[in-house]
Each structure stands twice: as structure tokens, then as C-alpha cells.
Specification:
The complex is a heterodimer of chains A (397) and B (411).
Chain A (H helix, E strand, L loop, with lengths): L2 E10 L5 H9 L5 E5 L4 E8 L8 H4 L9 H19 L8 E5 L5 H14 L6 H4 L6 H9 L6 E4 L5 H14 L5 E8 L3 H9 L24 E9 H6 L6 E10 L13 H13 L9 E3 L6 H14 L4 E3 L2 H4 L6 H14 L17 E2 L11 E7 L4 E9 L2
Parallel strand pairs in A: 4-5, 4-6, 9-10, 9-12, 10-11
Antiparallel strand pairs in A: 1-7, 1-8, 2-3, 6-7, 8-13, 12-13
Helix pairs in contact in A: 3-6, 7-13, 10-11
Chain B lengths: L5 E10 L2 E2 L1 H9 L6 E2 L12 E2 L13 H5 L3 H17 L11 E6 L5 H13 L18 H10 L6 E4 L5 H14 L5 E8 L3 H9 L23 E9 H6 L6 E10 L12 H14 L8 E3 L6 H15 L8 E2 L2 H4 L6 H15 L1 E2 L22 E2 L4 E7 L4 E8 L6
Parallel strand pairs in B: 5-6, 5-7, 10-11, 10-14
Antiparallel strand pairs in B: 1-2, 1-8, 1-9, 3-4, 7-8, 9-15, 12-13, 14-15
Classes of the chains: A alpha/beta (397), B alpha/beta (411).
């Protein structure tokens, strides 16, 4: 059974439209700052890849937004821009279900609910806010908005969730439960995630995000949402949908061997995921046009991925989109797919728009390459907790 | 496409009425009440104070001290339940191909006690991060629970965490069923886990949804649910793999269905749309009809609306047969263990099949005209139990139904 992608929409610091994303991918990274999160704030502005001036009202209208948090608004806005018509037309049973990956869900709401209870007493918390404290709140809110009853799944495999949502969807569709799903990844910038990552020494103290960089000392957090319509090829053809890509191979696995900072230096799990995805696509490693790397500036994770790439794909160019998006945690896998599709369809590989030293013996693209024949792209997602997944996308446009 | 049949060969449970399968089964069969005043945090400021806490749980019985310190209570529970299930299955995990071993877990809150500790620390430190233990934040993401379980059993296959609130256990078991059915793994450890959570207790109190003295599902005088904690785990295998190693098969997973009310985040759809759809999808997936079912494990939280609407859902799907199918809710005994609930209920269903005994709904005294089914009131009952359905619903309108059967039984 062939599974294809027939639509996509993403919201991140790169923008929303294809033109905006192409321009942003070719430009220098735009690092912003955040400090104030309502109940809590940072004494110093925190560098990050936030979405400045995100305003869901023009997209979603005012109705019902008052009780929705940022994570939910990001997902609703992406669904509205990408799939409003699909949800609005046809009988209810044909409206797609949803499968969304996220690392923290609505953690800002969860933490604020408890903070409110501590600061003002449990009797004074807003009961309406309690609904946002379940991790599946954004996904279920999307089901409610679009009267999508067929399924509502949230996947939370830390930084891998945006990719594991694809793995879940492919299994769910292949098992015959659905012909199509809206699949994606989501993460909001939140005080609690930023504070936790800072205390865990995961963030760059230099305020930089340099995947594979020899001077890299961590990552910067980003936020965003990318959603896709994933369906059987048969379903796409039945409704005359334009197939933009085929999920030629996908493999998700786990690496139980952890050393300091969570990554396994021998990279056996990551290698297994990437090689199995390529095997499933029935292609050779050199058939891959480019790799969208998981690397984010964490020296240990980047070294692990570099060892896989240099071993299995030594001649394949590598794009490091997190240089431009930051580490968007549960949204990263999906945003990487969105960036890879954009480049693939534009027949190019976006570069770093600036040079820095790298440790890895890989072909990291610094200067954007044009007129690249992009037939297959490998997108990686490897988390520090052992989750590993890779997907091979075949260009169908 | 021909799919692999999927069976259950091991069970594990950490519950407010007993840790371990034997303790849980004996207590549940006797209709034990596991609800008592909560001790994990101060409840004096709340309108109610009862909950289902796991008593005398010692993580060091399942983990080294270093391991136990590196993870939250939800992970402790999940690993304990997994160990029990693996032991019963007789699987020598070190002899299995690790890339054919997967994990699929569910949760509602993940590790909320970790977040609660972090936030309380921030308040204590005058809203700064100065004294926050750097080892704590990394323990919070719910994906850590499945990762800890996977690491514990050296699973290198597909590993997933599905936090679909209080239906999460069924979602996790359902996904494991799919992975095994498609031959993506030989073995998947599936289950659900949640610790008692101040956030959940605060929220349900504020919604006036918590019971004052006892949890009385389907009773006319029911006054709410009771927040609980625990974990349930099952070892699931392809039938081929189980038979090849001569395993004792406890039950077969026949199918499942998931859906969504798409109505309201906290209030179930009065028309029961999501619950009905989930059941119908489960029957279609299992390729059986409702009239072959011997028992229904209810979501049965004890709230006015849930129990009334669930009764309506059962009657809508089962028709005339609904009146003659026993339905019960073990939440009357252990409270609502959130994401663990349907995993523990799946374990209970397996045990009911194994023992041909139905577990009761305790605290039942007065019938409600809106809830007019056979709820197995107050005492367990001997019965022929070959095929069971387990319902689980959740915040967000997530609904699910899991169908289990006695291996080899035909209806």
C-alpha cells in the first residue's frame, strides 16, 4: 500500500506561505527573544526562534479563541490555513481524523494552572483552564473545531514526536482504520519548557544554533506547527488530489543505550532507523538527493547523527534546517519534513547562509544549491531519550 | 491483507487495592474499596479529599536507587507493571531480537509530580530558577515513561507514548495490536501509567466532579469520580511468536476502535456520538457482532453525565441485548487512574476471562432510571466470560473500545 502526502501547511519563524518559507530558508537565521510569560518571566531575554506577532484571529476569527492557549491556536491556525475546505466539505465520515505529535503539549497552560492554584488558592483557579491541562488538548480542540470524529491521537515521544506521528499514521492507515489523516507536529514556546531546558544545560549559552558546529554548545528553542494530509494513494486518486510526495520509507525505533546527555555514541538506533527507511523505499543510499538533518547544535546528538551520515550516506548533501527554525521539540520532525518538501519542490538545498566550522566529515550545505534533482529526501529525527525515526520522501510533483 | 493474530501472555498491575496481579485480583474479586483520604498533598483546602492512592509502593523493589531517583512515580509504576507482565509471560527478554520488541504506553498527565515539584520550587525561590534541581526538569516529559520502560527491557523496536488522557491505555494497546498485526514486532509491552496529581485533583474539584465519600458508578446517588493512580501493563505477542515459544495464552486481542466526540473538551456529547462510533469501529475491526459479547468493562467514572451517556451508548450499540450483558466499573474500587485506567481495566478483563468471574461495581445501592443495565452490583459473579468489551473515554472527547476474547473460544 502506497502512502502519500497531498497537502501541507506550516507555521514557524520561517513564515507560513511557500514564498515566505523559501525566502527565510535562503536567508540568515532570525533569532528573537522572549522573557515575559505572564505568571513567570525570565530576568534576561531568552534567545529563541519564536513566531513574532503570531495573531490567530485573522485566520480563525474571534469566536472560541478566548479559552484556547498558544499551542492550540498554532495547531488550529495551521489546520485552518491548510485544510479548512477538506474539513468543511463532504460527509462527516470522510472528514479526516488527526494525529499530532508534541513533546510538551499545552505545558504553559498546565504550569500556569498550578501556578494559579499556588498563588491564588485552588478555589480561585479558572475551571475552564483545566481543560487545557491534558497533553492532548490541542489535538482534541482541532477535532472539536472541525467536527472531526473519526480519530484524535496525540503522540509524545519527546523531540521525536513530530516524526513519530507519521509513523503512527502510516501504521494506522495500513491497518485499515482510515484512508487518510491530518498528521503533524506542534510545539509552543513556553516558560516551563525554556526554563527546564535551560536548567538542564541543553540550551546554547552563546545564544547560537549551529548544527554540527565545532563551536556549538547547545541549541535554541523554537516553536511552530506543521500539518500534512497523509493518505493512501488510492484515496488520493479517488478524490483527484495532487500528490506532492510519497512516504517511500519510514522507520521508527528505539536506542536503549544512553551515555551522558542521552545519546548513544555508537549510533546503532539512529543507523537502524535510517537504513531501514531507505531499505523500505527500495533505493540505494546514493539515490537520496539530500538529507534533512536532525542536528540542532547539541554536540553529542550531532556527533551521533554525523557518524550515521558519514557511514551510510558519505556523498549525500546535508541540510540543517534547525539553524533557521531552532529546536522545535515535538514539532521538529514535521517542520523538517515541511522544509525538505519545500526545498525538494524548488529543486534546491537551502544552505546555512553563513559559514562556521564543523566537526563532522559530511557535506553540510552552507551555500544554497540550486537546480538540484530532488527525487528522494531522507529526513531524520533522533532524540536524546533514545527515540529514532527516519522517513524517505519521494518527489511526486 | 492477512494480519497476524495478537495474544496477551503476561499481565502487570499497580493499583490502589493491590500491587501485583494476585493481590489486585483477590482484592477486586472481594469488592475492596481502595479509596481513602489522599496523603500525597494537603487536601484540607479542597471540598473533597478521597482518592485512590497506591499503598506501600516501594520503587526499590523494581529499580536500583539510582534508577529510581532518575525518574518520576509514573515511570516507577510503569516499570513495575512491565516487570510483572514480563515475568508472567515467561519471556527471556535477553534472548529476544531487541529490534522486534516494542513498547506502547499511554498516560494522561505523564509525570505531573515532577512539574509540581519544579513549580513549587520556583515559588519558594521567589519565582526564580535559582534553587531548581537541574536533574528534575528532564524527568517531566511524558515520553520519558515509555523510554524508561523500553530501556528497562532493552526494546529497540518501535516505542511510542500516546497521551490521549483517560482513554490512553486503550489507545496504547490498540496501537500495539496494529504494530503486531502488521508484523512490525514480535512482542510489544503495552499499558498505561499515571501518578496521583495535584493538578488533576485541583481541576476535578474545581469542576465539582469529585465524589465526597465513595465512588458510586451508575448509582442514582452518585456524586462524582475519585482521582486515582496506578499502572497496568500487558505483554502482547503475535500468536505465531507465542506458540513458537510455547507460551500460556491469557487472552486474544480481537480488535479496537477509537473516535472522538468532537463536542466539548470536558463534557461528553449527550448523543454519545464518539462512544458509539468507537464501539462500532471496534466491532468492525474485530469482525464480530455485538450479540457475541459476554461482558462490558465500563468507563464508569461515577459522574452523573458520564454514566448516563455511557449507558445510552451501550443501549444504542447493543440494542435489546444490552439489558442482558453485565456491565461493571472497577473505578468504584480503585478510583479513576487516568491514563492507567483502561490499561488496568484491560488487565482486569483478561483476569475475568481467565477466572470466569465478573468483577463488581461496588457502592451500588439505588438504581437510576437513566442507568438501567445490569451493573454487577457489589459482589463478583461467576459467569462464562469468553468475549469482553472495554470502554474508555477522555477529556477532549477521545473515545475508545477494546475487544478481548478467550483464546480459542468461538461464539
Amino acid at each position: 500500500m502506497k502512502i502519500v502526502i497531498t497537502g501541507s501547511c506550516s507555521i514557524s519563524c520561517l513564515g507560513t506561505t511557500t514564498e515566505q518559507i523559501i525566502e527565510s530558508l535562503g536567508a540568515a537565521p532570525k533569532i528573537g527573544t522572549v522573557s515575559d510569560f505572564g505568571f513567570h518571566s525570565f530576568s534576561q531575554p531568552q534567545p529563541c526562534f519564536n513566531i513574532p506577532n503570531f495573531d490567530p484571529e485573522p485566520i480563525l476569527g474571534k469566536k472560541g479563541l478566548r479559552t484556547k492557549d498558544r499551542a492550540t491556536k498554532l495547531l488550529l491556525a495551521a489546520c485552518e490555513l491548510g485544510f479548512k475546505e477538506m474539513f468543511a466539505t463532504g460527509p462527516e465520515e470522510l472528514r479526516p481524523g488527526l494525529c499530532i505529535g508534541t513533546a510538551f503539549g499545552s505545558v504553559q497552560s498546565i504550569g500556569d494552572f498550578l501556578s494559579d492554584a499556588i498563588a491564588n488558592g485552588p478555589h480561585n483557579v479558572n475551571p475552564m483552564a483545566f481543560a487545557n491541562t491534558v497533553i492532548n488538548a490541542p489535538t482534541s480542540n482541532a477535532n472539536i473545531r472541525y467536527l472531526s470524529r473519526m480519530s484524535s491521537t496525540t503522540v509524545s515521544t519527546t523531540f521525536n514526536a513530530g516524526m513519530d506521528a507519521f509513523a503512527y499514521a502510516c501504521t494506522y492507515i495500513r491497518s485499515g482504520h482510515a484512508k487518510r489523516l491530518i498528521v503533524g507536529g506542534l510545539e509552543e514556546l513556553s516558560y516551563y519548557a525554556l526554563a527546564g531546558l535551560a536548567k538542564s544545560n541543553a540550551l546554547s549559552t552563546k545564544g547560537t544554533c549551529m548544527p554540527f558546529g565545532s563551536e556549538a554548545d547547545g541549541f535554541l528553542m523554537g516553536e511552530g506547527c506543521a500539518v500534512f494530509c497523509v493518505e493512501t494513494e488510492e484515496s488520493a486518486k479517488e478524490r483527484n488530489a495532487t500528490i506532492i510526495a510519497e512516504i517511500a520509507g519510514i522507520h521508527s525505533c528505539f536506542d536503549p543505550k544512553q551515555e551522558k546527555y542521552g545519546y548513544n555514541p555508537d549510533a546503532s538506533g539512529a543507523e537502524h532507523a535510517a537504513s531501514k527507511a531507505v531499505l523500505q523505499a527500495e533505493i540505494l543510499p546514493n539515490d537520496i538527493s539530500f538529507i534533512a538533518a536532525s542536528a540542532n547544535g547539541n554536540p553529542h546528538g550531532d556527533a551521533m547523527e554525523a557518524s550515521v551520515i558519514s557511514k551510510l550516506f558519505p556523498k549525500v548533501p546535508v541540510a540543517a534546517y534547525k539553524l533557521k527554525t531552532g529546536e522545535c521539540l515535538g514539532a521538529s520532525g514535521s517542520l523538517n519534513v515541511a522544509c525538505a518538501l519545500t526545498d525538494m519542490h524548488a529543486k534546491r538545498i537551502s544552505g546555512a547562509a553563513g559559514r562556521y566550522g564543523i566537526n563532522a566529515p559530511i557535506d553540510l550545505v552552507f551555500d544554497t544549491r540550486e537546480q538540484v534533482a530532488s527525487n528522494y529526501v531522507l529526513v531524520n529525527s533522533f532524540s536524546c531519550d533514545g527515540y529514532c525515526a527516519s522517513i524517505v520522501l519521494k518527489n511526486r510533483l | 491483507m492477512k494480519k497476524e493474530r495478537v495474544v496477551i501472555t503476561g499481565l502487570g498491575a499497580v493499583t490502589p487495592i493491590g500491587i501485583g496481579i494476585e493481590a489486585f485480583w483477590n482484592a477486586a474479586k472481594d469488592g475492596s474499596n481502595g479509596l481513602r483520604p489522599i496523603t500525597a498533598f494537603d487536601t484540607t483546602v479542597f471540598r473533597t479529599n478521597i482518592g485512590g492512592e497506591v499503598q506501600n509502593f516501594k520503587p526499590q523493589e523494581f529499580l536500583t536507587a539510582t534508577e529510581a531517583e532518575s525518574m518520576g512515580r509514573s515511570s516507577h509504576f510503569a516499570i513495575a507493571a512491565t516487570q510483572m507482565a514480563l515475568k508472567q509471560s515467561g519471556i527471556a527478554i535477553s534472548k529476544e531480537n531487541p529490534f522486534r520488541v516494542g513498547v506502547s504506553f499511554g498516560t494522561t498527565m505523564g509525570e505531573p509530580q515532577i512539574l509540581e515539584q519544579c513549580i513549587e520550587n520556583i515559588f519558594t525561590a521567589n519565582k526564580t530558577l535559582d534553587t531548581l534541581d537541574p536533574k528534575l526538569p528532564g524527568q517531566y516529559p511524558c515520553g520519558k515513561i515509555a523510554a524508561h520502560v523500553a530501556r528497562h527491557c532493552n526494546a529497540c523496536g518501535p516505542v511510542i507514548m500516546i497521551p490521549t488522557a483517560c482513554a490512553a491505555g486503550n489507545y496504547a494497546i490498540g496501537y500495539a495490536f496494529d504494530m503486531l498485526g502488521l508484523d512490525m514486532a514480535d512482542i510489544v509491552i503495552a499499558g498505561g501509567s499515571d501518578p496521583i496529581s495535584k493538578i488533576a485533583f485541583t481541576g476535578f474539584n474545581r469542576l465539582l466532579a469529585t465524589a465526597k465519600e465513595s465512588c458510586k458508578p451508575f448509582d442514582k446517588n452518585r456524586d462524582g469520580m475519585a482521582v486515582g493512580e496506578g499502572a497496568g501493563a500487558v505483554v502482547m505477542e503475535t500468536l505465531t511468536h507465542a506458540q513458537k515459544r510455547g507460551a500460556t495464552i491469557i487472552a486474544e486481542v480481537l480488535g479496537y476502535g477509537i473516535a472522538c466526540d468532537a463536542h466539548n473538551m470536558t463534557i461528553p456529547d449527550p448523543s454519545g456520538s464518539g462512544g458509539i462510533l468507537a464501539l462500532n469501529k471496534a466491532f468492525s475491526n474485530a469482525n464480530i457482532t455485538p450479540d457475541t459479547v459476554d461482558y462490558i468493562s465500563a468507563h464508569g467514572t461515577g459522574t452523573k453525565e458520564n454514566d448516563k451517556i455511557e449507558t445510552f451508548i451501550i443501549k444504542s450499540v447493543f440494542g435489546e441485548k444490552a439489558k442482558s450483558i453485565p456491565v461493571s466499573s472497577i473505578k468504584s474500587m480503585i478510583g479513576h487512574t487516568m491514563g492507567a485506567a483502561s490499561a488496568i481495566e484491560a488487565v482486569a478483563c483478561c483476569l475475568m476471562i481467565q477466572h470466569n468471574t465478573l468483577l463488581p461495581t461496588i457502592n451500588y445501592s439505588e438504581p437510576d432510571p437513566d442507568c438501567d443495565l445490569d451493573y454487577v452490583p457489589n459482589a463478583s459473579r461467576c459467569a462464562s466470560v469468553n468475549r469482553v468489551v472495554s470502554n474508555a473515554y477522555a477529556f477532549g472527547g477521545n473515545t475508545s473500545a477494546l475487544i478481548l476474547g478467550r483464546f480459542g473460544a468461538t461464539s
